[in-house]
Write a structure and sequence with these properties.
The termini are far apart. By secondary structure, the chain is mainly α. The radius of gyration is 53 Å and the shape is rod-shaped. It has a domain of 80 residues.
Length: 167
């Protein structure tokens, strides 16, 4: 320091700027607008992703509940159908049990697992006389005009005679 002045590490103060003058300054601040928009967009993206995930979980829970309800209703419906089938079979058996023992009704009794039916001797005399003329009562007894080997079609009447060789 040759001139005797001491050097300071700070520059000398500037004179004040006049009012209304444009100050040419240089600062290192970043603009806030783009970063604020970007931060808001990222925040909204995370928020919408979270809400979508929560909605998906609630939909999954509702679907699981609906599936459980559907299975329960399916089991209930199958049980009701089974009960209805049993009631129908019981009603058919009750009806078949009130009818006399005949060859025509034996197949139906066997199909529904019913009892043998009403014995003929329990019928009124008029009903016995009416059914006595029919070949339907006793499937074991063949009518006189039925030839051995002729198929019995459930006792609906006499068999059809075979065609003669000139017809």
């Amino acid at each position: 320091m040759t001139d005797g002045k001491r050097r300071s590490s700070y520059p000398p103060p500037r004179p004040p700027e006049p009012r209304g003058a444009v100050v040419a300054t240089h600062d290192h601040k970043q603009p806030r607008g783009p970063f604020l928009i970007l931060g808001t967009a990222i925040l909204l993206l995370f928020l919408s992703t979270g809400l979508t995930f929560m909605h998906a979980l609630s939909v999954q829970d509702r679907l699981a509940a609906l599936e459980t309800d559907y299975q329960a209703l399916k089991i209930q419906r199958n049980q009701q159908l089974s009960d209805l089938d049993q009631k129908i079979n019981r009603a058919q058996c009750d009806l078949l049990d009130t009818l006399p023992i005949t060859a025509l009704l034996d197949a139906a009794r066997e199909k529904y697992g019913c009892g043998p039916g009403l014995p003929i001797d329990q019928l009124s005399p008029e009903a016995q006389q009416e059914l006595g003329a029919s070949t339907l009562l006793s499937p074991q007894v063949l009518p006189d005009d039925m030839l051995p080997g002729t198929p019995d079609i459930g006792g609906l009447g006499p068999p059809i005679p075979p065609a003669e060789p000139g017809d």
